[in-house]
Specification:
The protein has eleven helices and nine strands. By secondary structure, the chain is α/β, with parallel strands linked by helices. The chain has one domain: Alpha/Beta hydrolase fold, catalytic domain (Rossmann fold, 3-Layer(aba) Sandwich). It starts with 7 loop residues before the first helix and ends in an 8-residue tail after the last helix.
Amino acid sequence: MPLFDKPLEELVGYRPARTEQDDFDAFWSETLLQVRRHDLAPAFAQVDVGLRTVDAFDISFAGWNGERVKGWFIAPRGRAGRLPCIVEYQGYGVGRRLAHEHLLYASAGYAHLVVDARGHSRGDTGDRHDFESGPHEPGFMTDGVLDPRSYYYRRLISDAVRALEVARGHAHVDPERIVLAGPSQGGGLALAVAGLEPEVAAVMPDVPFLCHIRRGVTLSDRAPYSEVAQFLRKRPDLVEQTFRTLSYVDGMNFAARASAPALFSVALMDPICPPSTVFAAYQHYRGPKQIRIYEFNEHEGGDAYHAQERLSFLRDEGIAPTGS
């Protein structure tokens, strides 16, 4: 895909106005208080996935409304003491997948908590509708979008925060060295949790989704942003109400509240998360930050090259496992 967004010299300084409502912080404080009324109740069951150098655990914990969220906990076999841990959130439509698909971080000596995304394909976590979500397009972007209290991503972000709490409480995890990471939707979730729970060691959002959402909807003709455009094409009377709700989950607004060292990635030919939306979150990010720019890549970003960048970043930040 050719370049379609602003030129790079404009992107690097792109800092649009944020969109949070006056009750943004109160909304999320109330949400997390509500979620934490349920016992986290983490459960870890070791499973044999045929691997010799890592141990894999099928895990579950209480997320939104106490509903069980699934994941994997993968750690080096023969580990001793507490390890730094990568909490990784998944992209749109992905789910937690299979344990042997997540070997990078454990192979590098980290504990790795892979969080399922409720209702997404290849996942195990269900998505009960315990409230009226109203009209919406197929997919998740407009599910419950008429009110931030009923919006789908309120649940998913709540699950993401609870996953961080699971990692903090694990006997083999150093709670001072927890890193939030993920691609696309996972990057947006990592930013959200970093803004809500700033006491993490680092954040690594790759080509993050859910940032500068209104611009993303107007630039991208691909799902998931296209779900919003399709919805508003049929209901133009709901435009401002819809974007008001979306402002409560916008990565720009969370980025302004995050303080951990961050490594972003952006792809200048990305048709799903336009580069200006990523730079919007990056420019508003409050903590120390770096960004890797992939000029000719689409939504895969830097792919395997950027995986090396993430490991180098963790070493440079002093988060590498002992002996690395």
